[in-house]
Amino acid sequence: MNQETHQDDNQPTPKRDLGQATAEYALVLLGAAAIAMILLGWATGGGNRIGGLLDQVMNAVTGRVK
Questions:
Q1: What whole-number distance in Å separates Cα of residue 51 and Cα of residue 2?
Q2: Mean pLDDT score of the chain, rounded to an integer?
Q3: CA 23 → CA 14, 18, 30, 43, 56, distances in Å?
Q4: Residue 54, exposed/middle/buried by CB under 10 A (0-12, 13-18, 19+)?
Q5: Domain boundaries defined on the chain
Q6: Residue 40 pLDDT class (50, 70, 90 cuts)
Q7: Confidence (pTM)
């Protein structure tokens, strides 16, 4: 590994980066929750637009697998 590009692990984190991981984690959780809600709505038969879209996607995927 090139010594010039290696950062020392003992250096403190800049103040502007504090909390960045927490914010990224929160955004990932929100995205996962939104996807879960969409899939739950599709699985329970709610939402004709979402259901139709996901049915088409599933049909296309299963058609390619066969």
A1: 52
A2: 80
A3: 16, 10, 11, 30, 34
A4: middle
A5: 20-65
A6: confident
A7: 0.52
